[in-house]
Write a structure and sequence with these properties.
Blueprint lengths: L6 E3 H6 L4 H7 L5 E3 L10 E5 H8 L2 H33 L10 H23 L12 H15 L3 H8 L5 H19 L4 H12 L15 H5 L5
Antiparallel strand pairs: 1-3, 2-3
Length: 228
């Protein structure tokens, strides 16, 4: 009694190193189709005779094809690595400048910006929020002030646009954020701890920014100002 024919799926072929181009070139149409056992509503599985696959793999033409394909993949990976290295090298030279203004004015602007943005969301989507004020929790005010500085008083947004669509942008994004938080902490030392918290949330790595010794003012002095 002859052995029962053995079949392999397209997914199985790819595990053996086959590509879509190779399948089309050396195997052509599948030998039969079958219902997907995991997802019955999915498209039928394309199955190929194992004997035919093995025979194709032993031909010189297929071996030459796979060797060329391997070289192309290696070359493509090398090109990606080079682009990534160039981007990161370029990024290391970027200067992220943060505008230095009176701290109480920056906090006031951050509060106004936060309330304006969330009011707009409330009008458009019914988004509920608690209005920020100078009497809000200090940690919350630190957070929205850092966010305000990052997006409105620095070149962060412009540099972020420069990364769009580039190879290596994930790693570059972490470096860019470290640069902006470092610049904010340097310009506004009272916000250094908040910069460290935000950096940790984005990268999973704790970074301690330098905290220069300064007179005790800034945040405390803001709260002593008369209400407007």
């Amino acid at each position: 009694m002859p052995d029962k024919p053995q079949y392999i799926s397209k997914a199985g072929l790819k595990e053996r190193g086959w590509t879509d181009t190779g399948i089309t070139k050396f195997l052509g149409p599948c030998d039969k189709t079958a219902v997907n056992p995991h997802y019955r509503k999915a498209a039928p599985m394309h199955l190929f005779l194992v004997d035919r696959v093995v025979a194709a793999e032993q031909t010189d033409a297929y071996r030459q094809f796979t060797e060329k394909n391997k070289n192309r993949v290696t070359g493509a990976k090398k090109a990606v690595k080079t682009k990534k290295e160039r981007l990161l090298e370029e990024l290391m030279g970027w200067q992220i400048n943060v505008k230095k203004k009176k701290y109480h004015k920056v906090v006031r602007n951050a509060i106004n910006s936060y309330n304006s943005f969330h009011h707009m969301l409330n009008v458009e989507r019914g988004h509920e929020y608690i209005k920020a004020s100078k009497n809000s929790d200090p940690e919350f005010l630190h957070r929205i002030t850092v966010n305000y500085l990052r997006h409105n008083l620095s070149s962060y947004e412009e540099r972020l646009d420069d990364l769009f669509g580039k190879v290596g942008k994930t790693e570059a994004y972490i470096i860019l954020n470290r640069k902006i938080y470092e610049s904010i902490a340097k310009a506004y030392p009272d916000l250094a701890e908040e910069c460290e918290r935000q950096m940790y949330r984005k990268s999973g790595t704790y970074v301690e920014f330098e905290k220069p010794v300064i007179p005790q003012r800034m945040f405390e002095s803001y709260f002593s100002l008369p209400r407007r």
